[in-house]
Amino acid sequence: QGTLCLLLLRISSSAQFPRSVAKRYENPPIQEAICEFHFDESVSWDSTYPGLVYSEIQEAFPKKRSAAARGIEAEANTLRLRSEERTRFLREDEQALIQIGPQFLSANRLAPYESWEEFLEVIQTGYRAYRKVVDPAGIEQMSLRYVNRIQIEEDEVDLSEYFNLGLRTGEDLP
Fold it and tell me: What are the E-state strand segments in 40-174?
């Protein structure tokens, strides 16, 4: 699975996107782009990994910070709080960062989002360093998300003016 993912990233970096996809906006809506990898648990986490990953990427991501990731796990009728230590590596301008933790890697690009090519470089930098240092056996989950902020100031709006989607609300809906 890990090889397939890396192959996908290599293919994507050379892909040519149609002009409609590469449209530049005066006020881009993307607040954050996030690419997350969750790796299998075949390799136990070693406290030296953050320092080793940092040595691989410190030229491009010179700032290093610790952070705690908190979440809730649900099992049957029980909810349990979960806390996990993560290390963040930030670019000098703090607009791009790589986060790592046990079985976890995230590449983030904050606003202003430049381009897919620029974000892909952040993803590949983090992925290569994590694979080199931690060497997980496989990927359990990979996700790519974009967080958008679209401000619409009118009370009534024609969504086709804002979105190039085939949304249909139905005649009977307000």
Answer: 63-75, 78-90, 96-101, 104-110, 139-148
12 vs 163: CA distance, rounded Å = 25
Q: Determine what percent of the chain is predicted with pLDDT higher than 90.
A: 55
Indicate the Cα dihedral angle 40, 42, 48, 50, nearest 10°.
-10
Does residue 102 carry a pLDDT above 70?
A: yes
**What ranges make up the beta strands (E) of 104-163?**
104-110, 139-148
The CB density around residue 87, as the number of other CB atoms within 10 Å, is 17
User: Residue 153 phi/psi, 5° resolution?
Assistant: -95, -15
Looking at residue 45, what DSSP letter applies? -
Contact residues for 95 (Cβ-Cβ < 8 A; gap 6+) = 109, 110, 111, 112
Least confident of 61-75, 94-108, 110-124, 126-140: 61-75
Give the span between the Cα atoms of 141 and 109, in whole angstroms: 20
